[in-house]
Amino acid sequence: MSEDLDRKPLRDFGLLVGSVLAAIAFWPMVMRGESLRMWPLATGALLLILALTRPRLLRPLYRIWMRIGEWLGWLNTRIILAIGFFGLVTPIGLVMRLVGKDPMRRRIGEPETSYRLHRTPRSGAHMFHQY
Fold it and tell me: In degrees, to the nearest 5, what angle opens at C-alpha 9 toward C-alphas 17 and 78?
C-alpha cells in the first residue's frame, strides 16, 4: 500500500508537468504557425514516459519541484500580506486618524482612576437564542 502512495504523487507530477511542457511545445505551432519547440517536447515526452513506466525515477525532480513550490509559497504569502496591510489597513488607519475616529478609545484625557467603560448588565436570557 505504501508503494502506491509513493508512486501516485510522482506519477501525477510527471503526467501534469509533462503535459504542460508538451502544450508549451505545440503552442507556437498551433497559435502562430511557427515551428514546433523541441526542448519542451523532448522534456515533456521524457516526463510522460517516466511517469507511466518508472515513476520512482522522478523522485529527485519532484523533491526539487516541491522545495521551489514551498519557497514560492512562503514568498507569496509575505508579499500578499504586505500588500494587504500597507495597501488596505494602513490607509484606513490614516484616514481614521485624520478624521479623529478612535474606535478603541485610546485617548488619554483627564486623569481618571480607570478607563474602563461601565455597561449595564444584561440578563442571562439573551444567551438562549444565540443564532
Answer: 70
Q: Which tens digits make up the pLDDT trace of 23-39?
A: 999 998 888 888 888 99
> Which amino acid, residue 76?
N
Tell me the longest C-alpha to C-alpha distance in the chain: 82
Distance separating alpha carbons of residues 26 and 12, to the nearest angstrom:
21
pLDDT digits (tens, 9 = 90+) for 33-80: 888 889 999 999 999 999 999 999 999 999 999 999 999 999 999 999
**CB 37 within 8 Å of CB 28:** yes
Distance CA 40, CA 30 (A): 15
- Distance in angstroms (rounded) separating the CA atoms of residues 69 and 62: 10
